[in-house]
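User: Reviewer 2 asked us to show a designed sequence for the structure in our supplementary figure. I'm pasting the structure tokens here. Could you produce the per-position amino acids so we can include them in the response letter?
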């Protein structure tokens, strides 16, 4: 199976062909995959070099002239390093753009901590008006990228990951999708965490909701699920643990509830290792998730 990032260049090349407003801005990373797009649209595919602040600033300038910029690099260089430009050049000026990341939380361990960004979604949560998409499969990534570019002049973050679920689901760029129904709690699986959550909850009497759009958070769907399954809620996110607990609390503000936020821990792991070793170290493998989810909701097994 190809990866989410493999889909990026072909999709944006077609979008450049289809829509004269679309422009793509990169900072060296990704330029090889975009060679054909650069050949076909030399004035709308811009490589600013290793200048991440300029990357976002140039995108904001394009947006202010009426263009729809798509900005791409590793998550740590797209959200963390140029955060002031994301905050001011895009946010403060109300300039829309589509930020498309790669490498996610720890997708390239050999790159070291400089190439890891488990806090990217939490950081964007400090700003107003961002839509955040977290696909769990290349098909979903393609759909959500197209949605994001077509979303007028909104500010959208599309978080691509090397990890993926075995199959994609139909996504609409909006709400939560019910994958499994139960009556002893609700587990929200975000993006590429779905397969591990389904394996971890096999035979357990819990409802599993699947989220690929995490901001805005689908409060209405969560409330509906808790009415049938109870108000013990577990969040399993592929980034900083607890990132969406505030959104859940807001959705259930008038209902007594408990929340367990699972995700990437704050403790820095100082060895490169493999992706699988990082997953296990953060307790995000199926066996660890089953133990942690079961202990929290005390769920009976299905008959």
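Assistant: Here is a per-position design you can include in the supplement:
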């Amino acid at each position: 199976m190809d990866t989410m990032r493999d889909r990026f260049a072909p999709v944006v090349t077609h979008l450049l062909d289809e829509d004269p407003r679309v422009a793509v801005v990169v900072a060296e990373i990704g330029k090889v995959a975009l060679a054909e797009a650069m050949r076909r649209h030399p004035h709308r595919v811009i490589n600013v070099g290793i200048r991440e602040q300029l990357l976002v600033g140039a995108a904001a300038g394009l947006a202010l002239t009426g263009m729809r910029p798509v900005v791409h690099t590793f998550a740590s260089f797209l959200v963390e390093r140029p955060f002031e430009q994301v905050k001011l050049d895009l946010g403060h000026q109300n300039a829309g753009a589509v930020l498309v990341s790669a490498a996610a939380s720890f997708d390239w361990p050999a790159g070291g901590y400089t190439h890891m960004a488990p806090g990217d979604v939490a950081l964007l949560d400090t700003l107003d008006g961002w839509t955040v998409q977290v696909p769990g499969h290349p098909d979903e990534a393609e759909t959500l990228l197209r949605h994001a570019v077509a979303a007028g002049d909104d500010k959208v973050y599309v978080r691509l990951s090397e990890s993926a679920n075995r199959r994609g689901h139909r996504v609409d760029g909006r709400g939560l999708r019910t994958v499994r129904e139960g009556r002893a709690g609700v587990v929200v699986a975000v993006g590429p965490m779905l397969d591990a959550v389904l394996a971890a909850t096999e035979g357990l009497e819990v409802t599993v909701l699947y989220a690929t759009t995490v901001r805005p958070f689908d409060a209405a769907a969560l409330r509906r699920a808790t009415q049938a399954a109870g108000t013990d809620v577990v969040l399993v996110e592929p980034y900083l643990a607890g990132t969406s607990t505030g959104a859940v609390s807001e959705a259930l503000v008038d209902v007594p509830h408990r929340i367990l936020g699972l995700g990437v821990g704050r403790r820095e792991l100082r060895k490169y290792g493999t992706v699988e070793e990082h997953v296990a170290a953060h307790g995000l493998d199926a066996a660890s998730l089953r133990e942690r989810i079961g202990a929290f909701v005390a769920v009976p097994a299905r008959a």
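For the response letter, you might also mention the following. The mean pLDDT is 95. The longest helix spans residues 4-18.
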